[in-house]
Amino acid sequence: MSIAVVDFSSFGLRKAEPSAIEMEHLSTEIIKAFSDLGFVYLKNTGIEDQKVFKVMDISRNFFRLPRDIKQQYARSVESETPGHGWIEVERIISTNPGDLKEVFNLSTLYSSDKWPVKHDPEFTKCMESFFKSCEQLSIRIMKLIALGLGLESDFFVNKHKKIGSNKNPTTLRTAYYPAIQKSTVVEHQMRCGEHSDYGTFTLLFQDKNAGLEVMNRSGQFVAAPYIPKTVLLNIANLLQRWTSDRLISTKHRVPIPQSDDMLNSPRQSVAFFVHPDHDATLVCCDGLDKYPPIKAIQYLKENLSDVFQRESYPTDD
Fold this sequence. Notes:
There is one protein chain. The chain is of the alpha+beta class. Helices cover 25% and strands 19% of the residues. It has helices at 20-36, 49-63, 67-70, 123-148, 237-242, 260-263, 296-303; strands at 5-7, 39-43, 85-87, 102-106, 171-177, 192-195, 201-206, 213-215, 221-223, 230-235, 252-254, 267-274, 281-282, 294-295. The strands form 3 sheets. The chain has an 8-stranded mixed beta sheet. A 4-stranded antiparallel beta sheet has the order 6-11-8-9, with no helix packed on it. A two-stranded antiparallel sheet has the order 13-14. A hairpin with a 5-residue loop joins strand 8 and strand 9 (221-223).
């Protein structure tokens, strides 16, 4: 089963909200794709490929800086924005080796954290502009998902009002996967190990090298290729919880390429991980109470305790 492509042009950025009939049509298509595979390509969203590639180009300038310079902008889990900053190796997966990538996260537009202004002058402005575009698109997607689930259109929007502040962990991530020397790869190592995302949903933009694989309902991985003028949208764990497992957060990965050409080719991606406000209460939206209510920040502390370890985080207005 291939990943569905949905034309989003009628509700793209800078477009007025379409008719109720068109909204219903779009929401039905997205929920159907989510039910089939948990992933869907949205085409013609208003975020142009040129803007995506500009983020990648400017990010690459940062990632090619010496390690000691990038270390100055490393993430600090002790800050009020523990996801913000440069991460050399994102994580260790059980006993498996670390992913072959590095990333830079932007999780607030009002952060006092350091930016590489001196070493990559365009980086901050470019990242913040793209963050805002992704936020605007995400709000439109939230409305469609709510309608597709038979909820009020603002059901999810009302729980994501603080995106861009330190009261919400929504994160824009630019990732760089360097060229690989096959002799240095250890057993079970990947560019990005098998996982599901932990928030509400994710927007993913790949470069032309693609590389992402998505697990289908049979447990087999299928390719998620680069398609021009699209963003890849996928369910994350909290949306699965919200829907009492009606919609499943699909596992995905980026394995080591098999061909020499692809091994020698760096890969880049840009992801926007959408998450509810810290103080949002997550209650199953179908009324079945399959999962008990929980505050979003408490969920993070229980499931990502290595990052969200502080006693308190800003939650009030």
